[in-house]
Design goal:
two-stranded antiparallel sheet, 7 helices
Length: 196
């Protein structure tokens, strides 16, 4: 980052990018780090606060979360450049595009989530064996949370596109700390269900 920000030549120090740009870069980096931490902190804390059995069951459950997250990520990777351009050029269309993306995520995501929720026990038994069927209720918790996560992912992209990345970074730091606190409270008593 320092190499990008400053370049030293015979005339002294010259800034290649503004302080505002560096601030945005840091905010984007913090947001990315916090998002990764949010989705992985449960898996990291489970073996410390519970048993290897709980960590194994939760790891199997989380494979479905990872798989289902592909859908909003693909949609948002495609939609993000349009959001950035529309924020600069036409805020009315920016808002319309946001609503359309929200509807698309709901239209495509809800049926996929409902199928996995309704058949969670069977799917776990088929994918990993009968002994993993015990994780079905926790998988349902995770997938219900994914309904909200789809829209949270969209809102994160909207905040980045509309130059509110610093506020997003602050919210994500608080969210990760809250998640860690909940894990400390719930995992010892409830194992993989507490993590979910």
């Amino acid at each position: 980052l320092a190499v990008i920000w400053k370049k030293v030549d015979g005339q002294g120090t010259r800034h290649l990018v503004s302080t505002t740009t560096v601030g945005s870069m840091v905010s984007f980096a913090v947001s990315g780090l916090m998002t990764s931490m949010y989705y992985q902190i449960d898996t990291a804390m489970l073996p410390i606060l519970s048993t290897a059995y709980d960590a194994g069951i939760y790891g199997a459950l989380y494979r479905f979360v990872d798989l289902i997250q592909v859908l909003p990520r693909v949609i948002l990777v495609v939609g993000f450049p349009a959001l950035v351009l529309l924020w600069k050029e036409d805020t009315g269309r920016f808002e319309e595009t946001f609503v359309q993306l929200r509807r698309l995520l709901s239209f495509l995501g809800l049926p996929a989530l409902l199928v996995v929720i309704l058949f969670s026990g069977r799917i776990l038994a088929l994918a990993f064996g009968e002994e993993y069927r015990v994780g079905a209720p926790a998988l349902v918790y995770l997938l219900v949370a994914m309904l909200f996560a789809f829209h949270s992912m969209l809102l994160s992209q909207v905040l980045k596109a509309s130059e509110h990345e610093a506020g997003l970074a602050r919210v994500l730091v608080i969210t990760v700390l809250f998640n860690i606190g909940l894990n400390i409270l719930l995992i010892p008593a409830h194992g993989f269900s507490g993590a979910a």
